[in-house]
Amino acid sequence: MKNNALIIGIVASLCFFLAAAVFGFAYYQAKKPQKTVSVVGMAEKDFTSDLIVWRFNFSTQDNDMKKSYTLLKDNITIVKNFLKKEGITDGEMDFQPISTEEVREYQWDNVNRRSVEIFNGYKCKQTVCITSKDIDKIEKVIREISELYDQNILIHSWSPEYYYTKLSDLKIEMLAEASQNAHERAKAVTKNAGSTLGKLKSANMGVFQITAPNSADEDYTWGGAFNTSSKEKRATINTKLTYYVN
Fold first, then answer.
1. Which residues pair with 130 in a beta bridge?
2. CA–CA separation, 111 and 159 (whole Å)
3. Poorest-pLDDT segment among 66-70, 152-156, 168-172, 215-219
4. CA distance 154 to 143
5. Whose CB among 67, 102, 205, 241 lies 3.0–4.6 Å from 62's, allowing a Cys bridge?
6. Confidence band, pLDDT 50/70/90 cuts, at residue 107
7. 3-state secondary structure of 115
8. Half-sphere exposure of residue 120, counting CA atoms within 13 Å on the CB side?
9. CB-based contacts of 71: which residues, under 8 Å, 6+ apart?
10. First vs last C-alpha separation in the chain
11. Alpha carbon of 184 to those of 42, 122, 175, 178, 243: distances in Å?
């Protein structure tokens, strides 16, 4: 009986030490640092804007506020008729609320040797915003807006802004291209090192930039440039992928 108990004790001890060894090896393997490789992939695409936004304003001024406002309302009618004649629809034009302000300036009083405030009347201003997908049509109107000068309407125009309404789809498409580019680079690096590419560890999207093509004076920024002055645009995106190496 004593011999049997001794044998059982020895076997139990061997099993314990064997289990401990297996567990220790597994723990070591789990904690053992795994080699990784990080690469940056890029994608670039030229495209044409499909939306234009154009803003301009005009104003009137008179010592009588009511006369200034009435004159502005007459000019609004003239401007609307001009825009409709050029093919701009009601849905494409937005006549924003009229603003009114007192116009004052300072003149030097030589007698009293001091600056004197002079009241120069009331200015009423109308701002118009044109938004359209027919870019060629709006660009033609911008070139011909000077026709209103003949009717004593002075137009103050901003430069048109160009946008792309499918930007979200473009971004997803380019992100996939940048990721594929990074994957190919990672395969090439590990192959040259005599290793094989393992599973993906992490992926981080970089900056999405929109600039004018071949622009020498437009800087890339950490936050991402977003050009609105050029109808033709270039989008760039990068992504950083980290893979395990076998």
1. 54, 93
2. 45
3. 215-219
4. 14
5. 67
6. confident
7. strand
8. 13
9. 60, 62, 124
10. 54
11. 11, 67, 14, 10, 12
Q: What does the block give as tokens for 154?
A: 């002075």
Tell me if residue 16 falls in helix, strand or coil. helix
Of 2 and 133, the one with more pLDDT: 133
Per-residue confidence (pLDDT) for residue 19, from 0 to 100? 52
Report d(CA 230, CA 215) in Å as an integer: 10
pLDDT tens track for 195-232: 889 899 999 988 899 999 876 655 555 556 789 999 99
Contact criterion met (CB below 8 Å) for 52 and 135: yes
Main-chain phi, psi angles of 232, to 5 degrees: -90, 135
15: helix, strand or coil = helix
